[in-house]
Amino acid sequence: MNASILLNLQTRVVQTDKLTAAERHTIHALFDLGYGQANHGYLDQSLTKLRFLALAHDQETPVGFAVGDAVIAPLPRMAEPQCVILAGICCIAPGYRRLGLFTYLESLAIRESGVVRPEERSLSCGRMAHPASFRIIRGNPTVVPKYGHAPTEWQKEVGLCVAELYGVHLDPETFVVIGKGKPIGYPKIDIKVEEEEWLPFRSVNRDRGDSLLGIAWNPDAPEGW
Questions:
Q1: What separation in angstroms does the CA of 30 have from each of 64, 131, 180, 187?
Q2: How do the residues of the chain divide into helix, strand and coil, expressed in percent and rounded to 5?
Q3: Following DSSP, what letter does each residue of 152-197 receive, concatenated?
Q4: pLDDT tens profile 151-197
Q5: Which of 146, 160, 172, 210 has the highest count of CB atoms within 10 angstroms of its CB?
Q6: What's the sign of the alpha-carbon dihedral 3, 110, 172, 155?
């Protein structure tokens, strides 16, 4: 992140089950600032599933938040429980975008879990409603879904397990998270996206509130993945 911007921001991480009414109002306002038809119910549901929220202020002005978590969980066909990183929704105010604040706040929230060990294998997961968000893991060779490559049975099983951790319904054939009948929200930002980047999203119905579940291993995948 741009160091000069970072030095001027105040950040803190709070547990989502201990948010005050004022803090909840702040993140709802940031959500409205970043999304048209922002679905507060979707955000509130995320706060019941993911334990940590990182919030950034510039002096007295809130400028961004990110929700995230990481857990040690059993995964199909794995001999031992694995570290599963669960990235959540992130909203950054205009004027503070494209500076790395998205990734920085998400990392703060996830790190608060205390279970992530950089030297150990982990599965990074996120629900994306737009190709620009998918870029974070799209270049990872272990990523699922990958357009033109049907998920294997093992990958489908892991995807369903991750969906359960998020508390959502997944179509394992497409890795589309089926929405609840209304939009999550539409980003108020113009992002240049190549046509090929939309291909994995062909089955995503944003008007229904769908998103795309992306998963990828770091630093490498288990044998046979």
A1: 7, 21, 22, 12
A2: 35, 30, 40
A3: PHHHHHHHHHHHHHHT--EETTTTEEP--SS---EESS-----HHH
A4: 999 999 999 999 999 999 999 999 999 999 999 998 887 777 788 88
A5: 210
A6: positive
Please give the Cα distance from 169 to 210 (Å, whole number).
10
Domain ranges in the chain are 3-218
Peptide bond into 145 cis (omega under 30): yes
Residue 2 pLDDT level (bands cut at 50, 70, 90): low
Alpha helices in the chain (DSSP H): 3-7, 21-34, 40-49, 101-111, 131-138, 153-166, 195-198
Q: In whole angstroms, what separates CA 19 from the centre of its chain?
A: 20
Q: Does domain 3-218 have CATH number 3.40.630.30?
A: yes
Residues 6+ apart with CB under 8 A from 222: 78, 121
CA 163 to chain centre: 12
pLDDT average, residue stretch 111-139: 92
DSSP at 88: E
Q: What's this model's pTM, rounded to 2 decimal places?
A: 0.93
Decide: residue 132, CB within 10 A, 0-12 exposed, 13-18 middle, 19+ buried: middle
Q: Is the bond into 94 cis (omega within 30 degrees of 0)?
A: no
In degrees and rounded to multiples of 5, residue 46 shows phi and psi of -60, -35
